[in-house]
Design goal:
Blueprint: H1 16-50, E1 68-72, E2 88-92, H2 93-100, H3 106-115, H4 117-128
Antiparallel strand pairs: 1-2
Helix pairs in contact: 3-4
Length: 139
């Protein structure tokens, strides 16, 4: 055993948490960076897939805003369907803002009609399924 390394802890005030917290903060920031890159790529894919605002609330060209956004029926915090193609649609900014408070009304009815009963209930089951987190996400 070398002189500089001793296996005995003599008066050591450093706790396990003091060592792990900076490491876990770094892991969290890496995870956020990876998720933000994936979110951007997925959003771009959805917007290119649909190409226009797919919500048929109004046909007025004046009502649609030009900026397409990726709308998640079940929010991004629902990790099991975060990147699910049936959960996401390209919607203009005005419709997205309009629909966010109406997920139990207009948005629900439209999504049910869009997918049909069988696919909608399948999406709902996938949403209810908990996704296991990788070890790097456990904090």
């Amino acid at each position: 055993m070398s002189k500089s390394i001793s296996r005995r802890r003599v008066g050591c005030s450093i706790q396990r948490e003091d060592i792990l917290q900076p490491i876990m903060r770094r892991v969290k920031s890496i995870r956020k960076i990876k998720e933000s890159v994936l979110d951007k790529a997925f959003s771009l894919f959805i917007r290119r897939r649909d190409g226009r605002c797919v919500f048929p609330l109004r046909d007025d060209k004046d009502f649609h805003s030009g900026n397409l956004q990726c709308s998640h029926f079940y929010g991004r915090s629902a990790r099991s369907v975060r990147f699910d193609l049936e959960n996401c649609d390209a919607i203009c900014g005005r419709h997205h803002q309009f629909l966010e408070g109406r997920k139990n009304a207009e948005y629900f009815d439209w999504k049910f009609t869009q997918l049909g009963a069988e696919r909608f209930h399948s999406l709902k089951r996938r949403y209810a399924t908990l996704r296991r987190r990788p070890p790097t996400e456990k904090v």
